[in-house]
Structure formats: C-alpha cells, structure tokens
Design goal:
Length: about 375
Amino acid sequence: TTGLSWYLPSQERYVPIDIPGLQSRAKGRFINAFLHRPTKTLFLSFAEKERKNIYVCQSKNPSATWLELRWQAPLKLPEPLNSDFDDTTPFLDEEGSTLYFASNRPGGYGKDDIYFSRRLDQSWLRWSAPENLGFRVNSNFSEIYYCLSPASDYAYFVSYKHSYGSGDIFRLRSDSSQREEVTTAPLPPDPVPSLPQLSEPTELTVEEYKANNLVFLIDRSASMRASSKLPLLQASLKRLIGQLRDIDGLTLMSFADTALIHFSTQGVIQKDSLYQLIDSFVAAGGTKANRGLQLAYDYTKAHFLEQGNNEIILVTDGRFDLSEEDQLRINANQNIVLSVVGLGSDRKAITNLRKLTSKANGSFIHLKPDEDATEALLEEVKARSRQ
C-alpha cells in the first residue's frame, strides 16, 4: 500500500502516519515528503493522475507531540507553482517563506531543474511565479532534492551531472558559485575552452571605453536548431566575454515558451562558467519574443547604468511578430539601445529585424559563417561604448 511512516530510532520501528485520502488519491508507487518542523506541516508530491504535483498537509493539533499529530487531507498547491508537468521534491526554508522544488516544465536547462517560489501571504494559496535557480545549480542533466542547511550556509541537492552512479549529492556554499560534491573524491573536470582569461590584456581599455550594461536576449526556440545558428552566436559571444572588464555588467536571458534570466553580474569575472553556460543552450519550444522583450526592458531599466552603455542585444532568426505593446515599450525607452543579431537566411525575417533596429536606435548585425563573425559582437560594443 501507499503511505508514510515515522521512524523511531530508539525503538527501531516505523509508525504509520494517517493522512486522510492519501492512499486512494496517490496513484504512483512513490511519494516525496518533507516535514517543516517549525510549523509541523507536511509537504508531499505525488501523482493523482499522470503527473506529480505538490501538496500541503497541515496538522489539526500542532501543539501535540509528533506521534499524536492528526493531519488534514492533502491540499494541492495552486498554479503557477504547480504545472501541467512533474513538480516534485518540495522543501520549505526555515522561515516558511520560500519553497524549493524540482520540475521538468519547459524552459529549464535539463531534464529536471530546481525552481523556487515565494509564499505571498500566510495561507498556502498564493505563491509567486516559480523562478529557475540558474546554472550554478542546474545542468543539462537532472537536479532534484534541493534543501538548505539549518544555518542556510549550504545548499544540498542531488545531481546526475558528474555523478559516479545514477545520481550523487552535491553542496553549494551560499557565498559561492562553485558546487562541491559531498564525498572527498575529485569531480571529473569540465572541458574549459581555450579563450582569453582575466590576466590577458583587454581591447576595451578603461581610457577609451565607458562601462557597459549589456543584456543579451537569446532566442532558443525550435527554429534556432539549424546547425550553424547557435554555434555562430556562441563563438561571437565568447569572444566578447573574453574582453569584458570588472566595470562591465552582463546579463544573459533567453526566450522560447518562457523567458528566463540565466546569469547576471556586475563585473564579468566568472568567464569559464559563462562559457560553459553558453555551450549548454539548446533550441526547443515556441517563440515568445514578447515575454523576452518585456523581461529585458524591465531588467535593464531597474539596473540602468548612468553614463554607461545600456544595451539590449536581441539574438534571433526573426521568426516572430512584435506586438503593439512591444512597439510602445521600445518608443518609451529611447535611452536604452536595442540592437539585433540576425541569424539565418530568411529574407523576410532579416528585413523585419532591420526595421526593428531603426526604431530602437540600435544596430543590426547579420551573423554569417565567415571569418568576421566572431568579431561582430565585440565591434558593436566597442562602437557603442567608445568615450
């Protein structure tokens, strides 16, 4: 039968937990469970139909001892926290304000990604839109069972990337971007591209070029699957990143079915990690450019750099239409440059992209597979940021 139990180490026995309706509602073989000790609240993940979702079980008598607790029936958490895909392995932080969970919903890096959602009131019915934890935790494999230490100085999670079996435990310091495996065995190294490092001189000298606030909005929809499109972008973007300085800000966003912020920093110093992130982009899904533009403009305005080059660089093959709202947003933010990198050979799409840049005071860059392609983005930033 399907059910949950307490384990009593002193007595070396299990004590069943009676949760009304659980056995009849949970159709799969497995239930994920997390107990939030401060509130004596259970979080469950199980499948009532085909997909797993996250549920909350509140205690009817929270002042009772653990073995005397009586439970309410599981309450399914609402959208947007739950989705039409698998949402599993819930963990609520010590303060009871942020829920972390794994999901295979579209827009992630791999098969399962870790997301978080913030509780918006004291009920369990209002949650913020889930946000992806980003490439510091998630990979092109699966990450699940994310949790925080009691002091919140370490995060622990299971990853199938670099695992010695089907999945290993890793930890991440709260003040670090480097994951560590809990075991002492060394991790197999990732290949590091042979590109310029911090110790090499930059072509963007402080004397000649002002600071940059660069927001890359990258189309990763299915139409970008053509063999030459993403590799062209990756080579040109790596060349630019290799020259950025600690006074430059860089944000990487993408859009397909959803719009995501993958990375943002003021002071471009983690270049090897950025190269690996760029290499991990995979084209799949629809083309929700409108969501991407809204996210890019909102973010650039919130982090506007006075006396600097504030530039959104949209990278796409152009197979989408701008809405009236997009046009109004561009017109209302003329202090933000919108440049476009066009990929592919669709003449109609390229023509539309050229028209877009003329309305946004930006540049149009048509990336083609030739010897100058890798220099295109660097030359654009030079032109915009020259003192």
